[in-house]
Amino acid sequence: MRFTLRHLEYFVAAGETGGVTLASERINISQPSISAAISHLETELGVQLFIRHHAQGLSLTPAGHRLLREAKSLLDQAHNLYTVASETTTEIRGELAVGCMLTLAPMIIPELCHSFMASFPRAVLRQQEGHQEELVEGLRRAKIDIALLYDLQVPKDIVMEPLVDLPAHVLVSEVHPLATRTTVSLKELESEPLILLDLPLSREYFLAMFERDGLQPRIAARSAYPDVIRTMVANGYGYTLVNVRPRSDLALDGRRLVRLRLAGGHRPMKIGIATLDGIRKSRLLQAFETHCRTFISEGYIPGMIPPLLDARVREDAT
């Protein structure tokens, strides 16, 4: 056998990204090295793996599609050798794929993963962001090992352990007429323009609040990108409903946002760690679960104002 796992790794990167340039950026390897690995595999295996499109990247041939599946399976098995080895020693090592809700990832993932790898330097965490449905599918297809997500319609084949509640609240710009208030109700917001977080299950969660109270929100705009929504709100386009509490009250353009408590006792979202039901958990995965339980609680959430501190600050303000 005159090819290596590295050849396969470079081929998989090109196959999944659809181009040598993107593959180079993804795995931080030079483009000539990736091209050479693909050519070597094609020569060694005697098949054409890609169709080259001038200035438009690569597309897999039928043989390339089949080889991509097998190559990914072989690489996964090779990575699992580290897990097997770690379970025969006292050392936590290996690679773990961690998924996270894209609304949570910018705040939670950097500190959470960095602190874990500082404690276990032989561990490598590979992160993936997505919305709820993408993360569930990633767990089912073994693309990720564990996910940080919300308790929104979690299917029966996914085991979720809740860690902390995040009550919904309202964001407005600092010049909004309601910005001087501390609490506001959905009834008061019904005629105001709503900038809606347009992600699967998240949008249904927010709209269900209005439906429960017999109200009809005035949706002025939608976006799947939280930072776009924050900046629109900060610029006076309207208000939005959110659960996350970033430590910064600034939008990306530097304008200030004001957070208001939402009256009415609405159901909070719960952040939890989720895995596929019935999987055999490695020591690495168990160690990361323990780390999540330690770092995410009512008293502390990486990158966020935790619920307990937020409640105390509001009590002091009144």
Any low-confidence stretches, pLDDT <50, length ≥5?
312-318
Mean pLDDT: 90
Distance N to C terminus: 73 Å
Instruction: List the secondary-structure elements in sequence, H or E.
Output: HHHEEHEHEHEEEEHEHEHEEEHH
Number of separate helices = 11
Q: How much of the polypeptide forms β-strand, as a percent range?
A: 15-25%
Radius of gyration: 23 Å
Cross-sheet strand order for the largest sheet:
4-3-5-13-6
Characterize the biggest β-sheet. Answer: 5 strands, mixed
How many β-strand runs?
A: 13
Structural class label: alpha/beta
Shape: globular
State the helicity in percent bands. Answer: 40-55%
Please describe what this structure looks like.
There is one protein chain. The chain has 318 residues and is an alpha/beta fold. It is 42% helix and 23% strand. The chain contains 11 helices and 13 strands. A hairpin with a 3-residue loop joins strand 1 and strand 2 (57-60). Helix 1 (5-17) packs across helix 2.
Write the SSE topology.
Layout: H1 5-17, H2 20-27, H3 31-45, E1 50-53, E2 57-60, H4 62-86, E3 94-101, H5 105-119, E4 123-130, H6 132-140, E5 146-150, E6 158-166, E7 169-173, E8 183-184, H7 186-189, E9 193-197, H8 202-212, E10 218-223, H9 226-234, E11 240-242, E12 257-262, E13 269-276, H10 283-295, H11 307-317
Parallel strand pairs: 3-4, 3-5, 8-12, 9-10
Antiparallel strand pairs: 1-2, 5-13, 6-13, 7-11, 7-12
Helix pairs in contact: 1-2, 1-3, 1-4
